[in-house]
Amino acid sequence: MQQPSPTSIDRTAKLPRARVAKREQCADDLFKLWLEPETRFPTFKPGQYCTIGVKGIERAYSIVSAPHEDWLELFVELVPEGELTPLLWKLAVDDTVSIRPRAKGVFVMSPKFQSHFMVSTVTGVVPFVGILRDYFHKGETGHKFYVIEGASYPGEFGYDDELAKMAAEHPDTVKFVATLSRPTEEKSKDWIGETGRANVVVGKYLDQFNVDPATTLIYACGHPGMIEDVRVEAADKGFAFIEEKFWV
Hints:
- The chain is an alpha/beta fold.
- The chain has six helices and twelve strands.
- Helix 4 links the parallel strand 8 (144-151) and strand 9 (174-180).
- The longest helix is centred in the last third of the chain and has 13 residues, at 224-236.
- The chain is globular, with a radius of gyration of 18 Å.
- Residues 1-9 have low confidence and may be disordered.
């Protein structure tokens, strides 16, 4: 593995630190980290990202947790040939990472739209979870959310149970569809839900949910190929569109 240069190490040496408060492995290459900043992390908007680092190597990760939560929750995909994720993978509880002192990003809920049609692949679901947690925590009303999450295998759905629970408890506010692109493989043998890539089923659910282009913003976060397909479909059908290329 290429060693970070002294310059990159010095660049983060004086940054605040955050302690790994909890770690959970979700799949062979997916894990969650809960970070406790040593100093109060400034408030942020759900959907924004924080920048963390190990040994001077930094990357930005969208924040799962809502602003009211005590810890910053992240959902990370291990990239074996990557610079940072193998280091994050090895972290244990009480290890620390550097953290930039404020969140950034414009991939946030737009209140001028009444309906929010959210399309994601795997870790791309992260900003949508944070947006929904915050929405219900604040007790807001008047909006509808349609969440489409795609993955290859069931184990890659890091937040499907939480989203399904939201949909069950708030059926007039949240609709959730999890879809598998590889339903015939052994790891998916017990799957009984929707099948097909997220970008392929988008049109079906825009029609099924009778989503109105005049009042709806389509959000896409995840694989660049999925985003491009959804962007084209949104344009063809007259929807406003926003994207976040959640990819490493």
